[in-house]
Structure formats: structure tokens, C-alpha cells
Amino acid sequence: MLTSKECMNLEAQYGAKNYKPIPVVINKAEGAWVWDPEGKKYLDCLSAYSAVNHGHLHPRILKAVEEQLHTLTLTSRAFYNDRLGRFLKRLCEVSGFDMALPMNTGAEAVETGIKIARRYSYEKKKIEKNKAEIITAYQNFHGRTTTIVSFSNDENATHGYGPYTPGFKHIPFNDTEALEASINENTIAFLVEPIQGEAGVIIPDEGYLKKVRQICDKHDILLILDEIQTGFGRTGKTFCFEHENIKPDILLVGKALSGGVIPVSAAITNKNIMDVITPGSHGSTFGGNPLACAAGEEALNVLLEEKLPERSHELGEYFLKGIRKIDSSIFKEVRGKGLFIAIELTESAGGARQYTEALKDKGILAKETHVHTIRLAPPLVVEKDELDWALSVMKDVFPQ
Ligand SMILES: *Cc1c(COP(=O)(O)O)cnc(C)c1O
Fold it and tell me: For residue 195, which of 203, 184, 207 has the smallest C-alpha distance?
């Protein structure tokens, strides 16, 4: 077996340096815990960017995948398979929409949402050819394709990748006046995360989404919600939009859709919108493959039967309260919804990285985002006493 050092050296020698990982190697996991090759155990407080909401190696999801693995794994969509329809039915039941288009990664779900919105607006709203505009929010994160980074304002994510795809505008997040002011005759949609994850768990004012919904209705533009990180229980509801009793026109999901076992994503909408997608107009070799569908269907069942959204709500409030009680002198703000929590440090703390590394040394894995913020998002199966342990560790790591 390779040591941690050997694994890190191999990656450094043969891998593109598109990440700067916390220096820890994970070689096995179970539930909320992961282990390194030397046998040291860590509480996972990132959950693979909220893909592992169900906990690592959830036995029911593994069983479904294992059975499928020995039956049928890939057909392509040149043919039907016996798992896709029942998976999509379950996904539509859980989300409350008519139809879904299955893809693999989150970025592909976003691309799919953009395609659906554009086609819909050209065919059903008679927008002039190639003029459709989609409004997005500053500090957004929607993925890494060339089109998606075209509407990112993260210099790291965009530098050197031009020319950028036209047809996107930016407005400040959490600003409904800016949204209304930016709409013109070519505007077809507003694409937004209900809580901005990568930006540092930025939670908009209460009522923001409701007002956004009203504005989109008033101007007849589509609301596309990217719930790839916030979906499937992370914020204390199955979907974050439920907190404000609204529904988007197009819902984008990924990450925890499979419980983090294999990549599964989807763009979900109603029939009158999905109807613009015709044979040959979009697709993916692996999208809707039977193995992914088996994982996705069981992950949805587990999510609801184990009441993971409710757990997230209760444990999130408990954890948030506990972190606020630590009341470190370097805490600028502690915020969260469900088990989606961020600690923003003061500028004088000198960056979050030294603290994520110190947490790692003491057995908690978390990742800094945007220099000063630490995101805490443990698997939703985490136990209260495990959170108590994490709080005691954090008390040692953050200065009084
Ligand atoms: C992770 C993420 C994506 C991209 O998903 P990938 O699977 O990495 O392509 C898109 N949107 C949001 C909000 C995300 O958190």
C-alpha cells in the first residue's frame, strides 16, 4: 500500500495542478468518517462539496449499485433500458415536476438547462434568433465548461479561457431591483443558486426567492435554479426553494442525486418546456445509464425514508449554535442553513487555509473557499455526539 507521501508525490508528478488539496490522502470511508493510509481517522466536513449527503458507502445505495453492476451497466440511449424510466419517475415525484433530462455532471445539467431555456424562448416566445440573454449573479458558481465560465467572475476560473460565450449578463446576488432593472426584450431567464455555495454559503435575505419568482412571472422569463449543491437535504429541506414555497421553471440537480457514488445529474422541468427538446437535439453517452439510475433511485428513497432533510435542519441549527458559542476573536460571521454552514474569518486572521490545515491535523476535514471562509457541510447522517466532538476540536483550533 502506498503511503500518504507517496500518493501526494505521484499526483504532483503526473497530475495537472488544477487543484490545491489540503495535504491529506483518503483511502477509505464510512458514513461521516474517512481514513488516511496511515490509519488516521477524520470527520468529513466537506462531503465532496455536498455530493456525499447520504454518508460514505451508504449500504442501501451500495446494494442497489452492486446488484445493477452485475446485471447491466451501460446501453447508451440508442436503446431503452429498464432503469431509466423508474428513476426519472421517482425524481419527478420527489421534485414535483413533470419530466427530467438525465446527464452526469453538474456542469452538464447547467448546460442542459441553458439549452432548454434558449430553445423554449426561440420557439415559444419568438425571441429573435441568437439574441437570447440569460441573467446570472455575481460570485456564482455553476461549473467549469467554457460556456459556464463565460458567466463567472472568478478570475481564477476564467483567466486565459476566452473567447467567452455571449448571451449572459451579471447582476449582484440578493438584489431584486437589479434583476428587474436588467430585464430587456431579449431576456429569457434568470439562472441563480438559491444559496451561493462556492462563494462561501452566501444566504440571501428572507423573501428574496419569492420576489425573484414574482419578477420572473411578471416579465415572463424563466427562473432556473441551480440546486446542484443545495439540493437533496443540504439546507434542511429536500430543495432549498421549499424554504420560500416557490418553484423554479427549471431545476438543476447533481452531486448528491446519487449519494455521491457515481456522477448523476439532471435538468428537471415541466412538459410544456421540456417539449422543445427533440430527438437528436441533446444527449450524453453515459447520461441515464442503468448503473447511475439504480444509484439515483435508491439515493432518493434513502433521502426521504431516513428523513435526511429533517436531520439536516435539526442538526444544522444545533451545530450552528455551537459554533457561534465558540465566539472566537477571528470569527467575522458564522452563518448557515441546515448543515450548510460557513465561518467567515476576519481579514486580520490571515486567511482560512492555516485553520483548515489545523483542523485537518486534529481530525476534521473542511475546505476554505475564497480565502477567508471555511465551509462546514458534514454528511447528513452525522450524529449529534460527532458534532459535539467537532465543536470541542474547533474550540481548540480557533483562538479566543
Ligand atoms: C458543483 C457545482 C456545479 C458543478 O458540478 P460538477 O459536477 O462539478 O460539474 C454546478 N453548480 C453548483 C451550484 C455546484 O455546487
Answer: 203
